Amino acid sequence: SVEATVGSFKTATAGSKAVTKVDSGQMMTSFLGFSGSEDLGGGLKAEFVLETFLATDTGGVVPNNAGQYWGRGSNVALSGGFGKIALGQYDNALFTYGYTYNPFGSSMGFSPTMRHFYSLGSLGNAKGAALGVDTGWVNSITYETPTVAGFAANLQVTPKETSAAGAKNSVTVGASYNAGAFSAGLAYMDADDQQSANTAAGTAFAKDQKVTSLGASYDFGVVKAFGQYTAVNNAVAADETIFQVGASAPVTAAGTVLASYGQYKTKNGGSKDTIFSLGYDHMISKRTDVYAVISNEKVTNVKAANSFAVGIKHNF
Amino acid sequence: SVEATVGSFKTATAGSKAVTKVDSGQMMTSFLGFSGSEDLGGGLKAEFVLETFLATDTGGVVPNNAGQYWGRGSNVALSGGFGKIALGQYDNALFTYGYTYNPFGSSMGFSPTMRHFYSLGSLGNAKGAALGVDTGWVNSITYETPTVAGFAANLQVTPKETSAAGAKNSVTVGASYNAGAFSAGLAYMDADDQQSANTAAGTAFAKDQKVTSLGASYDFGVVKAFGQYTAVNNAVAADETIFQVGASAPVTAAGTVLASYGQYKTKNGGSKDTIFSLGYDHMISKRTDVYAVISNEKVTNVKAANSFAVGIKHNF
Amino acid sequence: SVEATVGSFKTATAGSKAVTKVDSGQMMTSFLGFSGSEDLGGGLKAEFVLETFLATDTGGVVPNNAGQYWGRGSNVALSGGFGKIALGQYDNALFTYGYTYNPFGSSMGFSPTMRHFYSLGSLGNAKGAALGVDTGWVNSITYETPTVAGFAANLQVTPKETSAAGAKNSVTVGASYNAGAFSAGLAYMDADDQQSANTAAGTAFAKDQKVTSLGASYDFGVVKAFGQYTAVNNAVAADETIFQVGASAPVTAAGTVLASYGQYKTKNGGSKDTIFSLGYDHMISKRTDVYAVISNEKVTNVKAANSFAVGIKHNF
Fold first, then answer.
1. Would you state the torsion angle of the CA atoms of residues A107, A111, A115, A119, taken in this order, to the nearest 10 degrees?
2. B286 inside 8 A of chain C by CB
3. Which CATH number fits domain A2-314: 3.30.1360.120, 1.20.272.10, 3.30.300.30, 2.40.160.10?
């Protein structure tokens, strides 16, 4: 899938000025991937995924936090009646529920949730974002249960991969429920300081961070409503909370209006970052759509900033 | 497409000695690409291109000037009766006309035009070549008109992508005419100092460089004649001129003799670089050809150097 | 092909501790490749290969010794009744016979031969392994004869690619014989100091190293026996010898037991590294297998280390 944008971008940082540019990765991160599934009989399947993020505007590769080429996904898995077990780099449940329960999905430029989780820039911890972990976890073992009566769960474990004293494994557990128009997901992550200890080995987690995130959506037909609440407990920094409310509304057979309001706050008198994005997405085919978005960011004691963009997404 | 060469190479620089090597990228830069086109109805199409240059001899990636992996092309486009509009990295008209109107095409090793434009080595500006820009422009918006009565035109704009004072956008306009055996193309480029200001953002242009380039060819049947003249106006260095005359002659059903003579000169008493290449290309199938080339380079006050090479090109 | 492992790994180095990790490349180095063959008529074919090694666990690219992306193979070739001639990066005969005549094949984690040749870690020359050359040779011209009465031979030459005094070309010659259950291969390499002189150009050989390697196997049906002996003559370091004896035994229609014992020794009172690996490989389809391996490493004057791993390989 490729995506490109032309727009005027500004962040709510002191002295920031609007910059007009051709960009990519704002509405969706472009990627090229190879994947396959082999039927092993008896309902069992062997599966693999190799996907590299890319920047359409410059021809660049967008690596994962570990600096690696196949940054979107890299794993081999067995699936069957027992669920699915995958080894390698696999999406983390905070990311999966994060993009599922907001109307802008995985948009790193316009989704308040994605920006607060992964690309805050102006605030947050040393990684410039609330979460010290990547969207996908490298070096992980991931297990997903089958769906039973609308319920499904998943477990992701990353060994510490070191014999250094004090290091711990990192774990995320997730659970989701889907019933008709209603959907909800809950994830809990306990990640250890693998990033500093193990950068060379490619792990990328924050020092002892515990995150609980709840998201839900309800599709009323004329409008689909979204809500998310996330609590971040940091061992070595102030705790953080993030919430988001949003809606998407199909206004024509091909057009959808998207709106999302999200707030990031550090506890104990820290700063607030508030983002409101309003967009219109128009499918010109099943594989191609064009969009226009305006996004406003406000940071405590900093002048608000507006960004505008139009762009195109094309799946292949 | 893959290409590899065995040859003896020498450049016209003081103290240079001939080196025998297995090489690639001399006759054509190898690449691997993914592209597609989706029919959107009504004559409208969505298109994408992702292409990476590579070095067959070492297994290396040959990045664009911005250092990026998908260096040959990376864009998403809409095309239809109105022409084509593309966002991302897209071939620049100086390159397109540059390889169209010389018999060695885009050969970075043997085409005098390509060497003088992009890989001069021993002379020229800080980039070691006359043009401070890449063969394809990253971060660009490119518009191509449809062809009407043999005429076509194109416009390529790259926003400056900075709020720094004094920076300007970069622009190239091109026009071409084709009528039977005759073909001609004219391009004008005005590129600003985006390279130094914006390296991290992936733009790669020279400081305030204005280039006018005219090329033409006429196919007499027994021989096709080529000519090119390029004037380079540099804000911070001596102006430059480049010309090339060449011919290709089909000598058998599968074999073609190629000859090209080109000269690069800096004004105000600067050095001259003269390259003459003579080659024979033999198609052993529609997709595969073998070639032999001898190339002579003369530089003012430096001993002339000869290079010899045989190689193979294979399209897939 | 993708491969991933979960295991406890320990090397026989002073102070080494066992580390539990999700890994890849232990049983087989994962890769993604593109290749093709064009029939040119008269038995002649044009062929190409572009293959990149990868690390499934992190999404990483595993470059060749020259640091290049297409590290597993990158070449264009012509083949026909005369044999095959290839230009570019092509497997070296020491590697080809090295993986052919041991039961763990090209396993960089568990095959004693592969570890002693290429990834010794704790002992050996500056490259941390007996051989100063890569598994595939970049910048090479490779010729393979056709097979006649079970005999085949190959020649690989890499020009020195420098005019520096004292540098020499590097050469490997190989010969193999196959007759029913019996197979043997003999390779001789004379590689020069291209690594230090030519790192930038992508060559990767050790300073004046001469290697003779003999391998053989015999398939008794209930068990296949393997043996290898390699003598390494170093111009600037102590000479080395490597031997391996091994066996593979099909115990069920889908399961095979693998055992390999190998020893690496430096002459003149140097250290010894002894590795014994015992594995079980189970094909769950023609394309997918799972395996379990235990490997013991002993080094002179260092406590022995055991590694355990289970994993999955999936070809696509």
1. 20
2. no
3. 2.40.160.10
